[in-house]
Specification:
- The chain is an alpha+beta fold.
- It has a single domain, classed as 3-Layer(aba) Sandwich (Rossmann fold), CATH 3.40.50.
- Helices cover about 20% and strands about 25% of the residues.
- It is built from two helices and five strands; from the N terminus they run βββαββα.
- Strands 1-4-5 form a three-stranded mixed beta sheet, with no helix packed on it. The protein has a two-stranded antiparallel sheet with strand order 2-3.
- The protein is elongated, with a radius of gyration of 14 Å.
- The N and C termini lie far apart (about 30 Å).
C-alpha cells in the first residue's frame, strides 16, 4: 500500500515566460505548456498504480491565491481515469501564489 499526496502550485507563475500561454478575455492565463507538463507528470506518476482500499491511495491539493483539496487519501478513486488531470479535475488558476 502507498499513500501518495500531490500538492501542486496552480498559480499564474507556472506560466511566466511561457510563450504558449492562453489567456481569457480578461487577460488571465488559463493554460500553457508548463501547466500541461505538470498535468502530464501527475498522469505519468500515477498511470500504473493500482488504486484501491488495500492498494494505492491518492490525494491532490492545489494552491494559488487559495487552497483547494481536490480529493484526500481517504476518498477511494476507483479508476485512474477519474484521477486523470483533465481540465475538469485540475485547473490552472490565474491568481498569485499564497504560501502562508
Amino acid at each position: 500500500m502507498i499513500d501518495l499526496a500531490f500538492i501542486v502550485d496552480a498559480s499564474g507563475s507556472i506560466c511566466d515566460n511561457d510563450a504558449t500561454a492562453v489567456r481569457d478575455q480578461n487577460g488571465n492565463v488559463v493554460s500553457c505548456n508548463n501547466w500541461l507538463l505538470v498535468k502530464n507528470l501527475l498522469n505519468q506518476v500515477t498511470r500504473d498504480l493500482v488504486i484501491g482500499e488495500r492498494d494505492a491511495h491518492l490525494g491532490l491539493v492545489l494552491f494559488s491565491g487559495r487552497v483547494d483539496l481536490i480529493f484526500d487519501l481517504n476518498r477511494l478513486v476507483v479508476t485512474l481515469r477519474r484521477f486523470s488531470c483533465s481540465q475538469k479535475h485540475v485547473l490552472h488558476w490565474p491568481n498569485g501564489t499564497r504560501l502562508f
